[in-house]
Amino acid sequence: MRRPSTALSSIAIAVAAALFVGFAVAHRHRGVENRGTVSVSRRDIRTVLRLAGRIAPRKLTEVKSLVSGQLVAYSVDEGAHVEAGASIATVRPDQTQELLFFQALADERVKRVNSIQAEKDLERVRALFATGIVPKASFEAALATRDAAVATHEVALQQVHVLQGRSSGGRRGATRVVDVRAPVAGTVLAPLIRPGEAVIGATNGLSSTGGSPLLRIADTSSFLVKVNVNEVDIDKLSIGMPAFVHPASALPEQRAHISRIGAEGTTNQNVTTFEVEVQIDETSSFRPGMSADVDVILAERREVLSLPASAIDRKGAVAFVVLANGARRQVTVGIDDGDYVEIASGLHGGESVRVDGASSAGGPGDS
Fold this sequence. Notes:
Elements: H1 3-28, E1 37-39, E2 41-64, E3 69-74, E4 81-82, E5 87-93, H2 95-130, H3 136-164, E6 166-167, E7 176-181, E8 186-188, E9 198-199, E10 213-230, E11 242-247, E12 254-261, E13 266-268, E14 271-280, E15 291-308, E16 313-315, E17 318-322, E18 328-336, E19 340-345, E20 352-354
Antiparallel strand pairs: 1-20, 2-10, 2-15, 3-5, 3-9, 4-8, 5-7, 6-7, 8-10, 10-14, 11-12, 11-15, 12-14, 13-14, 15-19, 16-17, 17-18, 18-19
Helix pairs in contact: 2-3
């Protein structure tokens, strides 16, 4: 009655043995990259420096109010596309701005009168010059005076238009609000000031030194990747070097090139890095702030003889391979991509070389 149990045990032992033998055979023949040989073949090899960074628009413009006061509201939503000159927010001027408005209004009136008088003077001198009573120099001086007066009046008029704004009510004396307009076309990014908060006016809409920015507008027609490069690697890079950008999203790989290398490094926790900008050559639907990896191509060889890195035995600056017959041969190597090494000389295409056995072989030399 115990024979069936004995038979089952024998079957189990046989299955286990078969599995063990199968595993050993599979392990011994698991690709030529581990044990065995590989033929010298041609391939493209790149040496790259991989960097990580953030995608940013090539051009980013801060939008500022021309007057100080209180932010009333935004007239556009985050992510919207606006054209240059479009109204994007309204600001209620403070008392100081009210005073500036009336001063600008008075200044404009004076300059308008000066412009009208200069035009009358020019016509009078023009008539005298036509009859030869005054020289040409007098006519040219009157013409220059008229042109200067007109230009000055246009500047004063523009200032009035900036400060004038529009009424927030339908009656005289209602509180005025001033439109903030987009200086450039692009995509509206997140607001930097909330409605109800104070706004410090700038001297002009593109000022980078004065005033508080309300928001930023991104030119999404062109993007770049900003990366920080360790000081150890910075000398490997140069302007114009080709690169490939790999977005973290599902977007495809993009061709790019190095467009700027920072002249001054920054040190954080004893690590010094330099900011490098990599310009993306193609237009794609990126979003500012996306993460991306950048492969900067330091060197590239096309259709060169190559071998897996595991087939190369390096002794200092000298490299050897072990042929299929066990003989060692010295070779000259070029660039490598971490997986494959360029064979500059010492081997011919099609020759068989041992893989992962170069350092253990000690056969006779071969020239």
